[in-house]
Amino acid sequence: MLHIKQLLIFLLLTFTLLFCIIQWKIIVTPYQVKPVPSDAIIVLGAHLWGDQPSPLLQYRLDQAMELYHTGYGKKIIVSGAQGDDEVTTEAKAMAAYLTRQGIPTEDILLEENSYNTFQNLKYSKEIMEKAGLRHAIVVTNTFHLHRALRIGKYLDIEISGSAAKMHPYISTKIKYHVREFFSVLKFLLLRR
Fold first, then answer.
1. Contact, 48 vs 91, CB < 8 A?
2. The DUF218 domain covers which part of the protein (predicted)?
3. Which residues, other chains included, contact 121 with Cβ-Cβ below 8 Å and sequence gap of 6+?
4. Labelling 101: which of 25, 37, 54, 67 has CA 20 to 30 A away?
5. Share of the chain above pLDDT 70, in %
6. Topology of domain 33-190, per CATH?
7. Which residues, other chains included, contact 91 with Cβ-Cβ below 8 Å and sequence gap of 6+?
8. Which residue(s) pair with 139 in the sheet?
9. Helix axes 170-190, 2-32, angle to 10 degrees
10. What are the b/e assignments for 116-134, b being 16+ CB within 10 Å?
11. Angle of helix 170-190 relative to helix 142-154, nearest 10 degrees?
């Protein structure tokens, strides 16, 4: 009985330490990473509201537009398939948003087959290779940037990052950070 209790305490302490280390990485990455002028800006998809980007996704798109307008990238790759509860692909909704904001359609490349962050970056890399683009800036929200950069480097993408802002509500931030811990852990263990 004592051994089981000691094992449980050890596992709990290990989990807590791992949680703290990964959360630290998630929190500090947006402050440590700076975008580097690149060929492409990759915007990772997020949930839609009808056929419109959710506020979380709008933050990403607005950040990508700022990078584009300041010369950090020549093309914007919008990445995301159509979820079960969505009326269009995330990529099409993002492209429509960008064109309404004045981004030329010829500078927007759509990746419409990805259902998760790993696929976002894998399929965006394929688009980059076909278009002769070598360097990319990945744009996502603060809580998501650490994992996106890890995956990009794992896939051998020459990548830097730019963090879009996040919802101001602390409860929303906590939810996303806890969920992201498990997503980072999954990537570290399964490499997908």
1. no
2. 39-157
3. 42, 44, 79, 138, 148, 151, 152, 155, 157
4. 37
5. 99
6. Rossmann fold (3.40.50)
7. 45, 78, 79, 80, 81, 110, 111, 112
8. 43, 162
9. 110
10. bbbbbbbbbbebbeeeebe
11. 10
Structure tokens at 88: 């269009």
Look-up of token digits 């879009």: 164
E-assigned strand segments in the chain: 40-44, 48-49, 52-53, 75-79, 108-111, 135-141, 158-164
pLDDT at 3: 86
In the DSSP assignment, the letter for residue 105 is: G
Distance (Å, whole) CA 86 – CA 83: 5
Are 41 and 72 in contact, with CB atoms under 8 Å apart? yes
DSSP secondary structure, 117-149, as one string: HHHHHHHHHHHHHHHT--EEEEEEEHHHHHHHH
Beta-ladder partners of 159 = 136
Phi, psi of 77 (to 5 degrees): -100, 120
What are the tens digits of pLDDT across the range 9-31? 999 999 999 999 999 999 999 99
| Cross-strand partners of 40 | 75, 136
The candidate with the shortest Cα–Cα distance to 155, out of 126, 176, 112, is: 126
Tokens of 9: 């305490």
Sheet holding 75-79, edge to edge: 108-111, 75-79, 40-44, 135-141, 158-164
